[in-house]
């Protein structure tokens, strides 16, 4: 299956909204997210994406740039991404300057993820008509791509003005910072990814409609890229799915008693009547693992083998992609959550990467030749013993 231009090595990461109960100490909530990203870094995950939200209290990080700057000091290898910056909320020049600066702080580990803005309440509080979010994203993205490429940009819209604007410093990455745009159910993200030749994040890939649209969205992306003389790669396509795994399916289900009902309550309150009501844990579990939570998708709950099978289905449906991201949540407690990510790293990642490709053949080759090697090895030991005994005998004869 095609993973793009990365040599067949799928990348893995986590997408943090993040989700934290409004009853939790916010300082502790931030620290838990830092600790989990540090854990992912040690487990060889490739990417961590952190969102921007301003209402509802549950998705409580307002500035992914501030958060990522701190996370960069606590990690060594993992790439850090805005997941995503809501473009309609920011003046393009100010945002471009912040992103260029952050890329220097992270020494090029930054991915600039963008989107229109997910929470309608955010837009309302800022006086933004939600119907204009996608149009404003495209207007801003056109300028951001140019600014971060070092170009001078003049543009006047009904919500921002640029006059001979340019970034005073350019990103650490050359020729520019890596960028990606969120795609859910509508083709907006796919069109933008193709138009500007940037990556795409399918955040609703595990929802029934999002799953059906995967191949179509990639076709739209490629079509738009051709239309605008750009190039796109499946290696820069990321697929998002919520999951929780344990050694057994029964244990995985039991782990979710910690916080699944609270998470369902949030989605119901914030999403209104579009989200179903769960009157019991069993009902909540059924909703999450069958119909899913709207654009947030169907949760995969089970064992590493269950998740391997799910990723295979996504590969088949999409035609191949470069990275698989977990939609991070707190439906399980922190210990079980860390264990889930560890099981994923140990037992799921190797199925989609190349590092272990030669280990089995190497073991089989060694086993097939063991007798031949052992005969020579034992012969060498016996020869060393014989030589030692002859030397001792000669020394004893000389002493007589």
Brief write-up:
This protein is an alpha/beta fold. 48% of the residues lie in helices and 15% in strands.
3D architecture notes:
The protein is an alpha/beta fold and 400 residues long. It contains 15 helices and twelve strands. The chain has an eight-stranded parallel beta barrel, surrounded by five helices. α1 (26-42) links the parallel β1 and β2. The mean pLDDT is 93.
Structure keywords:
400 residues, alpha/beta, TIM Barrel, 2 domains, eight-stranded parallel beta barrel, two-stranded antiparallel sheet, 15 helices, 15% strand, globular
Question: How do the strands and helices of this protein lay out in sequence?
Answer:
Layout: E1 11-16, H1 26-42, E2 47-50, H2 64-74, E3 79-86, H3 92-105, E4 110-115, H4 120-125, H5 133-148, E5 153-156, E6 161-165, E7 178-183, H6 188-196, E8 199-202, H7 208-212, H8 214-227, E9 237-241, E10 243-245, H9 249-255, H10 260-271, H11 281-289, E11 300-302, H12 304-318, E12 323-327, H13 334-348, H14 359-368, H15 370-399
Parallel strand pairs: 1-2, 1-12, 2-3, 3-4, 4-7, 7-8, 8-9, 9-12, 10-11
Antiparallel strand pairs: 5-6
Alpha carbon gyration radius: 26 Å
- Uncertain runs: none
In CATH, the architecture of the largest domain is Alpha-Beta Barrel
User: Beta fraction of the residues?
Assistant: 5-15%
- Morphology call: globular
